[in-house]
Amino acid sequence: LKKNKITDFQEKVYRTAKRIPKGYVTTYGILAREIGCRSSRAIGQALKKNPFAPFVPCHRVISSDFSPGGFQGKREGLNISRKIRLLSKEGVLFSNGKLVDSKRVYRF
DNA sequence: AACTAAGTGAAGT
DNA sequence: ACTTCACTTAGTT
Question: Does A58 qualify as catalytic in the annotation?
Fold first, then answer.
């Protein structure tokens, strides 16, 4: 069985992710800087597990190039469709695999 | 405990 | 497009 232990790092990530307002998104890099980490990749690593979904809105975190990034461990397939749909419901629209409105990026 | 590989990136060349 | 950087987690030895 899996013992899901939350590390210090993950806690920071989750707590910060929760501060993203509904209708906005942020990037792995921005989030990383916010918690004083220089590796955006580590953020994705933590979000991937996301033991608190949807309490922790991991779907509001995208890549810095405005592509959706990944969702539930993958970067393609139905997972991404679900991510995009979730965001659409919140008013964050994607077109051709890219974020339409760059003003929707939340900067803490 | 130490090492390796991979992961929902980012930035530089 | 390719390469390098940076950090964590999970698995292997």
Answer: yes
CB < 7 Å to strand C — which of 4-63 in chain A? Answer: 7, 9-10, 37-39, 41-42, 45-46, 49
Of A90, A31, A91, A22, which is closest to residue A62 (Cα–Cα)? A31
Distance A8 CA to C9 C1' (A): 13
Output the average pLDDT for chain A: 92
Q: Is the pTM of this model over 0.70?
A: yes
- Locate A75 and state its tokens: 């970067």
Q: What is the pLDDT of residues A71-104, one digit of tens each?
A: 988 888 888 999 999 999 999 999 999 999 999 9
